């Protein structure tokens, strides 16, 4: 029913956003792609010759790449497992009648609003520190040796910190989905003799499957780019033990000034993220029709 | 709601839920408590929970020693600035897509979303080099530009899902009565759109405030917001737990409060309307 007039006005209104996002996408992306084929190091000024796929070969055959890739997958996978299982359990719990539900919700959601550098440093110093941390104190209190979390198990420790940050997100979304489940259907099933496990696996889980997929996909997008938590806790170390792909590219480009190599790493990161993004986009796209 | 819940069960659930809630919240609580201790007390063994000499000296020290106020203002300017500029660009776009959808609207929306999925590290080098060349490195302007662009897709999407819920019939009735585009926007749409715009604004300020990739990589001393300022505590000198806690408490307090107000919108905003 829109007139020609309102249609062109609409196009005019949408164009600033489109132009800006197009520029934001195309200019840096093509530059990254271009740099990735050059021998280009900021410490070695002069010509930046075209070297074909040399940077890619170098980046992909570097043992650090394989470590970083494994770490990235472990970090993403570990956090996903913890937050999804924890989130489903917490959502089930918070969906029950209780006193002070609003306050519990507020307590549970709070970590999501803490900036990454704060949560990483608080966990690193006040909890995981082997001398003054609260965990060390608790270990000593029951007669155990304090454990130097970030030195001995850096990646696992970072997984714990990041899971704490993302558990609220999973819980909140799963709780929202849970609340749209018809409680009368559950009661009917109960009267028909379905036990709590049957109800959970045949009714609750299928109902939540869509929300769980959304949580997985969105968290994956963010978790692939975890950076600040690593920077302030371990700097990727010891060695490369807690270096993920994002941190590796950062180190290559801004610490070693290797623009070419870093760009090749950036392109690899983009390709990996795209694989996830395609699935996410399909899900959201389907929802648009509904 | 046919069945009455037994009181015993309700008590059990309440106790478990409160305990878990307390555990999850504990690191934040511990940070706040530690910020009121002296440095010696902050690492005392056994740790004191509530019965210590409460002091506010750490807040004074943090403010004095570092340019805390500058970093705080950087955070405010960068998060609020990028959100407001983003809204200015996004409101017309979301409006037109929600009310005058063309056959490409869905594709445009999906494409905008796809830009959000670009891993930041993939474009770090060009942005860094461009900023270096034009002098935007370590400036508030530079960060406002970057954060506006990375949050623009979320802003457009959130607004779009809100605008979609405004009944179109009202607009058509107004058009029949001779309202033109301008009047439509000012008298009909704006009052109905304000709540959606407000929650979009709130969520985006939170996201921008906590953003910790670009803020860490593109700033040094001048434009560093609180994320980067706190990161400087990763290589501390001497006793610093109480001071770290005080700085952290000040950095997260405003956002915690805003976040609690926006938790309902959070779901919609962060799932791009896929879960409501």
From TrEMBL, chain A:
Q: Where are the transmembrane segments?
A: 12-35, 73-94, 106-127, 147-175, 211-232, 264-284
Q: Which Gene3D superfamilies match?
A: MetI-like
Which keywords fit this entry according to its UniProt record?
Cell membrane, Membrane, Transmembrane, Transmembrane helix, Transport
**Cell compartment(s), UniProt:** Cell membrane
Q: What InterPro entries does this protein map onto? A: ABC_transporter_permease, MetI-like, MetI-like_sf
Q: What is this protein called?
A: Sugar ABC transporter permease
GO cellular component labels = plasma membrane
> SUPFAM superfamilies under this entry?
MetI-like
The membrane topology term of the UniProt record is: Multi-pass membrane protein
One matching Pfam family: BPD_transp_1
Q: What processes in GO biological process is this protein linked to?
A: transmembrane transport
Boundaries of every ABC transmembrane type-1 domain copy: 69-280
**Protein family according to the UniProt entry:** Belongs to the binding-protein-dependent transport system permease family.
From TrEMBL, chain B:
Q: Which InterPro entries match?
A: BP-dep_ABC_trans_perm, MetI-like, MetI-like_sf
Instruction: Supply the Pfam families for this chain.
Output: BPD_transp_1
User: Cell membrane: is it a keyword of this entry?
Assistant: yes
Query: What is the similarity comment for this entry?
Result: Belongs to the binding-protein-dependent transport system permease family.
Tell me what topology the record assigns in the membrane: Multi-pass membrane protein
* Keyword entries, A-Z: Cell membrane, Membrane, Transmembrane, Transmembrane helix, Transport
A GO BP term here is: transmembrane transport
Q: Which SUPFAM superfamilies match?
A: MetI-like
Q: In terms of one coarse class, where is the protein primarily found?
A: membrane
Q: Which domain of life is it from?
A: Bacteria
Domain ABC transmembrane type-1, by residue range, is: 72-262
Can you quote a single GO CC term? plasma membrane
Q: Which cellular compartments is it found in?
A: Cell membrane
Listed transmembrane segments:
12-33, 72-96, 108-131, 143-163, 184-207, 213-233, 240-261
Descriptive protein name: Mannitol ABC transporter permease
């Amino acid at each position: 029913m829109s007139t020609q007039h309102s249609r062109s006005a609409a196009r005019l209104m949408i164009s600033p956003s489109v132009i800006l996002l197009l520029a934001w996408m195309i200019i840096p992306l093509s530059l990254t792609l271009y740099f990735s084929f050059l021998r280009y190091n900021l410490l070695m000024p002069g010509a930046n010759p075209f070297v074909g796929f040399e940077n890619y070969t170098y980046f992909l055959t570097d043992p650090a790449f394989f470590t970083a890739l494994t770490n990235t997958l472990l970090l993403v996978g570990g956090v996903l497992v913890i937050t999804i299982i924890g989130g489903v359990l917490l959502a089930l719990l918070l969906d029950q009648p209780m006193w002070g539900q609003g306050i519990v919700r507020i307590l549970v959601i709070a970590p999501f609003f803490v900036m990454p550098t704060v949560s990483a440093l608080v966990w690193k110093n006040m909890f995981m520190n082997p001398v003054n941390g609260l965990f060390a104190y608790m270990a000593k209190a029951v007669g155990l040796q304090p454990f130097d979390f970030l030195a001995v198990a850096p990646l696992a420790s970072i997984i714990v910190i990041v899971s704490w940050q993302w558990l609220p997100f999973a819980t909140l979304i799963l709780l929202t989905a849970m609340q749209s489940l018809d409680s009368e259907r559950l009661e009917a099933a109960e009267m028909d003799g379905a036990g709590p496990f049957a109800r959970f696996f045949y009714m609750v889980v299928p109902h939540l499957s869509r929300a769980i997929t959304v949580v997985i996909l969105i968290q994956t997008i963010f978790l692939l780019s975890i950076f600040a938590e690593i920077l302030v806790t371990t700097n990727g170390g010891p060695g490369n033990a807690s270096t993920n792909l994002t941190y590796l590219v950062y180190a290559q480009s801004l610490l070693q000034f290797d623009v070419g190599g870093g760009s090749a790493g950036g392109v690899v990161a983009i390709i990996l993220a795209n694989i996830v993004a395609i699935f996410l986009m399909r899900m959201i796209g389907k929802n648009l029709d509904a | 709601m046919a069945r009455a819940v037994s009181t015993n069960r309700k008590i059990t659930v309440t106790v478990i839920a409160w305990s878990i809630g307390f555990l999850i919240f504990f690191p934040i609580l511990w940070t706040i408590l530690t910020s009121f201790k002296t440095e010696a007390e902050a690492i005392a063994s056994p740790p004191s929970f509530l019965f210590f000499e409460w002091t506010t000296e750490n807040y004074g020290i943090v403010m004095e020693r570092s340019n805390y106020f500058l970093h705080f203002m950087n955070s405010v300017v960068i998060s609020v600035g990028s959100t407001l500029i983003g809204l200015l660009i996004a409101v017309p776009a979301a409006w037109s897509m929600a009310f005058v959808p063309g056959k490409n609207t869905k594709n445009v929306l999906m494409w905008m979303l796809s830009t959000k999925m670009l891993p930041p590290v993939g474009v770090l080098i060009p942005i860094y080099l461009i900023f270096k060349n034009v002098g935007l490195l370590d400036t508030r302007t530079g960060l406002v530009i970057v954060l506006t662009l990375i949050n623009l897709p979320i802003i457009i999407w959130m607004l779009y899902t809100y605008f979609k819920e405004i009944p179109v019939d009202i607009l058509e009735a107004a058009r029949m009565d001779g309202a033109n585009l301008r009047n439509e926007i000012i008298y009909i749409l704006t009052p109905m759109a304000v709540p959606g715009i407000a929650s979009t604004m709130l969520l985006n300020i939170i996201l921008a405030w906590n953003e910790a990739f670009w803020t860490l990589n593109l700033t040094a001393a001048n434009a560093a917001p609180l994320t980067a300022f706190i990161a400087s505590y990763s290589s501390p000198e001497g006793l610093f737990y109480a001071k770290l806690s005080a700085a952290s408490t000040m950095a997260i307090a405003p956002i915690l409060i805003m976040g609690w107000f926006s938790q309902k919108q959070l779901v919609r905003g962060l799932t791009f309307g896929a879960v409501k």
